[in-house]
Design brief:
By secondary structure, this protein is an alpha/beta fold. 42% of the residues lie in helices and 23% in strands. A hairpin with a 3-residue loop joins strand 2 and strand 3.
């Protein structure tokens, strides 16, 4: 039995549900559907897979906010999230590059890396190298003037933390940004890359190992192991660098994501804010928190 939760107008979905049932029946699946709280549909289907059920939902409801699972959906013990274009609405390195007059050049490299067209580590080093000589004070200006939380991010983190979930921000971006963003949103732990600074200016180099897709997945595995046997996990991200983490999580959410990341996820938020994750986890609005 595979189940899915879908945010949709429950009173006007009969025709679309019939189309999903017809599609799955042609593949040997048998669908049942019920409404939850007036804003969410819960689908259950025997004789199918998570991928087939998600494909059927996509064919009828996309863009959508949906989560599919082979087991009953529960509040996770661990939440690990990407930062740029997920917990915040910006790509920090692109915004920082604007202060050096290099945003179009660096943003083009960022986009190709997020699509999975470039090796992440090489692309990161190339972009950081282009920032050599930039005044460190540009980082503070960028934080103050350009960086803002994604809608629903603070509520998602605060609510999960209040329910006992361990929250970790893990980014291929930089501690100069991730530390204040993590504090602003209430994450318990922050993992990221470090820009090298000398005499108040960026050197164009990084300090220490690079946080790439393998590190993101390793952080998730480490936190799940620490939470204990059977711990459920949630991960959110949007780009190719997030794919191993998303695929490894019990509930891997692609948030307004690139196609490859979306395809790897069993949770998808295409056209809603991050509180959709709370709805799909079945957490009542009365339990939502902002801090």
């Amino acid at each position: 039995m595979v189940m899915a939760r879908l945010i949709a107008e429950t009173g006007t979905s009969e025709t679309r549900l019939a189309r999903i049932a017809e599609r799955l029946a042609g593949e040997g699946g048998e669908l049942t559907a019920s409404a939850r709280d007036g804003e969410m549909l819960e689908l259950r289907c025997a004789g199918t897979t998570v991928t087939a059920l998600l494909d059927a939902v996509d064919a009828v409801f996309a863009p959508a906010a949906v989560l599919a699972s082979e087991t009953e959906i529960r509040v996770p013990a661990v939440f690990v999230s990407d930062m740029d274009s997920t917990m915040i609405g910006q790509e920090c390195i692109d915004e920082l590059a604007d202060y050096a007059g290099l945003k179009p050049q660096i943003a083009a490299i960022t986009e190709r890396a997020m699509q999975g067209e470039l090796d992440f580590a090489s692309a990161l080093r190339e972009r950081v190298g282009l920032l050599e000589g930039l005044d460190e004070r540009a980082i503070d200006a960028c934080l103050a003037e350009r960086v803002s939380a994604s809608p629903g991010a603070r509520t998602l983190v605060a609510t999960l933390a209040a329910l006992g979930t361990r929250t970790v921000l893990v980014t291929g971006g930089f501690h100069h940004f991730a530390d204040p963003v993590g504090a602003m949103l209430g994450f318990h732990r922050v993992v990221g890359n470090r820009l090298e600074v000398a005499d108040g200016r960026l050197t164009g180099r990084l300090v220490g190992d690079i946080v790439d897709s393998a590190v993101k997945a390793a952080v998730l595995a480490e936190e799940v192991a620490a939470a204990g046997e059977g711990a459920l996990s949630l991960a959110t991200g949007d780009g190719a660098n997030d794919i191993p983490m998303i695929a490894a999580a019990s509930y891997g959410f692609a948030f307004k994501a690139k196609p490859r990341a979306r395809a790897a996820a069993n949770g998808r938020v295409d056209d809603a804010d991050l509180t959709a994750v709370l709805t799909l986890l079945g957490i009542p609005r009365l339990q939502w928190r902002d801090s």
